[in-house]
Amino acid sequence: MQKEKRSLWGLPRRAPWMLCVLFASLVFLLSPLSRGQAVSATLLGTVTDNTGAAVPNAQVQILESATGIQHAGVSNESGNFTFPNLSPGTYTVTAESQGFKKVTRTNVDVVVNTTTRVDLIVAPTTPNVAFKHGEKTDPIAMYLNDVFTIPADMSGVPAVSVPCGFTASGLPIGLQLIGRALDEATVLRAARAYERATDWHTRHPQLS
After folding, report:
1. 85-94 pLDDT, tens per residue?
2. Other CB atoms within 10 Å distance of the CB of residue 95
3. Which of 101, 159, 204, 205 could form an S-S bond across to 152 if both were Cys, CB 3.0 to 4.6 Å?
4. Which residues contact 34 (CB under 8 A, 6 or more apart)?
5. Pick from 136, 176, 171: which is nearest to 152 by CA?
């Protein structure tokens, strides 16, 4: 009998949408410009899953948009990574690890003498896909399908769900974006960027 694979936080890995997406919490600490001193920057970050647990040994890559120069690194046992001596500019940051979906953050502006923090969690909206009308009648089972949206509700941080695909049987799948407190603008921009890059929001499940 084939042994069931499980995700890092113990959930059965039955479908791709149940895999945690890496969350890159990036802090950019930039050296102040001084006379006779080279302009450089240090990019620091932490890779965690959607429960907040650190993900060690995650592969992290950054790409400077203007020059195409790439840098690669690995998160340590605490999920932290560091890229020192960078040139100011616009970067793309990518983090991935085995058993997790890859996450990419584009258009990250690194500006001299500025500190910028970028926090956005990408996670499944529900632990299961949508169920057919009338398929479930137990209220508890129906409420449990909302368990992944509870952390944002309880903590008061902004979150939004966008369509991200369909199952083989045609049932819709939701992608949840969770932002920092009072930072609804970032969440909405990310949701809109995802909609521009995909066409899932224009499709509809077959109703029968």
Report:
1. 888 888 999 9
2. 28
3. 159
4. none
5. 176
